[in-house]
Write a structure and sequence with these properties.
Layout: H1 5-17, H2 28-36, E1 41-44, H3 53-61, E2 65-69, H4 73-85, E3 90-93, H5 100-108, E4 114-117, H6 125-132, E5 136-141, H7 161-166, E6 173-177, H8 182-192, E7 199-201, E8 209-215, H9 219-229, E9 234-237, H10 241-255, E10 259-262, H11 268-280, E11 285-288, E12 303-306, H12 313-320, E13 330-336, H13 338-348, H14 353-371, H15 376-383, H16 396-399, E14 404-406, H17 408-420, H18 427-435, H19 440-444, H20 458-461, H21 464-473, E15 477-479, E16 485-487, H22 491-495, E17 502-504
Parallel strand pairs: 1-6, 1-7, 2-4, 2-5, 3-4, 5-6, 8-13, 9-11, 9-12, 10-11, 12-13
Antiparallel strand pairs: 14-17, 15-16
Helix pairs in contact: 1-3, 2-3, 9-10, 13-14, 13-21, 17-18
The chain binds adenosine-5'-diphosphate and zinc ion.
Zinc ion binds near residues 376 and 391.
């Protein structure tokens, strides 16, 4: 049906009177216009672009209730608070709510603009009955990538949404996500029954974020350096609760700044208090697991550091996207180690067969980002289907172009040595064999008699460790359970000479823009 032109005028009026904004931002207006016209839509917009507005605003204009599907109760309650603060009639139906009866009565009576529910509701017959007896204006599906196995956060319950929504075919659908590569987008459209013409993709570039990715020598030291250059609020992501605690302590002890911890193992009150303190502060650093950040709206975060690799490029983009939402310069710094990739590749083996390929592809894409000698931003944006300029001028590699070397020959020597020694020895042993330094263990095993003994000269020897890391990131070398090295799936092509290997040479001390301090 054609849109009532007055409706869009009313939407613009509400934008000011209810939300207090002068104008739409980016492609919000397009999305709102489609929704107001009853057209199903997939909005792909980066974190901070203002996705919530694109359903909250129509919800205040259209007759009936906008049903919002959201994967996290905490997120829903944040949204609920801010919607109610704007005077919007909103409610949640979650396991954490006590006022179900009132909410259901209000819903049936058409007295709600927004109703937030978890995806689990979709498969409950009573819930379908409730929808059938209530006026609906819109289905809004937040974090829509959860519907796709290609996405990084698959939630089987999202698959039940399609049959539910199909039962109310006259109600338009608005799917929202910040993170979706081309494959995932196509899947979201198919899984939620949205036409391809209904996709609105906002630009992913965050030009004020400076991306830096470097090898981790000492996470604490490197982040202390980062904090010295960034006096404002920051987020430090660490992979485990234990590392979060340790890092928070080290950082606060060495910098004298307030550093708080945040992870799922802390009592709920402490977590909430730390989060609130961080949001209100102008200088607090929060050290956290990835549990932190969803739904947090703090515009002036000046840096986001990763003390280990994130789960994927999508996760990296989302987590770093919490920096610099105010548009002022911000830093995103990732510190990686070969062990991060080795562990992640090991975990692939524990996944069900059908998910392994997708996860492996994701890990390879992340390794490519870490390993590239080219522009980080260009790689990120290409990953999201954009066609960016070759150089951004605001990432480590653009600011300080690294030296790249063809290391195929040394890589083959290293892989051969791993193979010839039986794929069970650690890097130290392999290094001794290759450089011809025979200790007792080398001699006892007869490794001084191997053809690879002593084939790496002094000038190449210094590259062995970084090459080993690079090969691990690429899956050509994998760590065994006992700390040894074995050949990975990508090794044969290199050994057979079918694939050459280029590597960014590690910076020589003092030549880097940042963190290159002499000890
Ligand atoms: P997303 O869900 O896309 O990450 P949010 O919906 O949380 O983003 O919005 C991010 C921030 O942008 C919020 O502080 C919100 O109030 C603000 N915002 C949204 N739309 C506008 C607008 N048109 N003008 C100014 N600020 C806006
Ligand atoms: Zn760049």
């Amino acid at each position: 049906d054609a849109m009532n032109p007055d409706a869009m005028n009313e939407a613009r009026a509400h934008l000011r009177s209810i939300f207090g904004f002068d104008d739409f931002r980016g492609r919000q207006s397009e999305v709102v216009e489609r929704v107001m016209g009853g057209k199903s839509t997939l909005a792909v917009m980066p974190t901070g672009a203002g996705k919530s507005l694109t359903y909250q605003l129509p919800a205040t204009v259209l007759d009936g209730t906008c049903l919002v599907v959201s994967p996290l109760i905490a997120l829903m309650h944040d949204q609920l608070r801010s919607a109610r603060a704007n005077g919007i009639r909103a409610a949640t139906l979650t396991s954490a709510d006590a006022d179900w009866r009132e909410t259901m009565d209000a819903f049936r009576a058409g007295q709600l603009d927004l109703l937030y529910v978890a995806p689990e509701r979709a498969s409950q017959p009573q819930f379908r009955d409730l929808l059938a007896s209530s006026p609906l204006s819109l289905f809004a599906i937040d974090e829509a990538h959860c519907v796709s196995e290609w996405g990084h956060d698959f939630r089987p319950d999202y698959r039940q949404l399609r049959p539910l929504m199909d039962a109310f075919a006259h109600v338009p659908r608005l799917a929202l996500t910040a993170t979706a590569d081309e494959h995932t987008r196509a899947d979201i459209l198919a899984q939620l029954g949205i036409p391809a013409s209904g996709m609105v993709i906002a630009g992913f570039d965050r030009p004020n974020i400076r991306y830096t990715i470097r090898h981790r020598d000492s996470a604490a030291k490197q982040i202390i350096g980062l904090m010295a250059e960034n006096p404002g609020p920051g987020i430090v992501y660490a992979p485990t609760r234990r590392k979060v605690e340790a890092l928070a302590q080290q950082l606060s002890a060495s910098t004298g700044r307030k550093v708080l911890a945040y992870h799922a193992g802390l009592p709920a009150e402490e977590r909430a208090a730390n989060q609130a303190a961080f949001v209100a502060s102008e200088d607090i650093v929060i050290c956290a697991t990835i549990a932190f950040g969803m739904g947090i709206d703090k515009p002036d975060v000046r840096f986001v550091a990763h003390a280990g690799i994130p789960k994927s490029i999508e996760a990296y983009y989302q987590e770093t996207g919490r920096a610099g939402r105010d548009g002022d310069p911000a830093n995103a710094v990732m510190l990686w180690g070969a062990g991060d990739f080795a562990q992640a590749r090991q975990r692939l083996g524990e996944l069900p067969e059908d998910r392994r390929t997708g996860e492996r592809t994701r890990l390879d894409a992340l390794a490519a980002l870490v390993e590239t000698s080219g522009c980080r931003r260009a790689l990120l944006l290409r990953h999201f289907g954009e066609n960016p300029p070759e150089n951004c001028g605001n990432c480590d590699n653009c600011l300080n172009p690294p030296k790249v070397a063809d290391i195929t020959q040394v890589a083959r020597k290293l892989l051969s040595a791993v193979y010839r020694t039986g794929q069970s020895f650690g890097f130290g042993h392999i290094q001794k064999v290759l450089t011809g330094s025979a200790d007792d263990r080398v001699r006892q095993r007869g490794h001084d008699q191997l053809s690879v003994f002593g084939i790496v000269g002094a000038d190449e020897a210094a590259l062995l460790q970084p090459i080993s890391r690079a090969l691990q990131a690429r899956g050509a070398l994998v760590a065994t359970d006992h700390g040894g090295l074995a050949l990975g799936g990508n090794a044969p092509a290199i050994l057979k000479g079918e694939q050459s290997v280029e590597m960014v040479l590690p910076p020589t001390r003092g030549s880097t823009a940042k963190g290159g301090r002499k000890r």
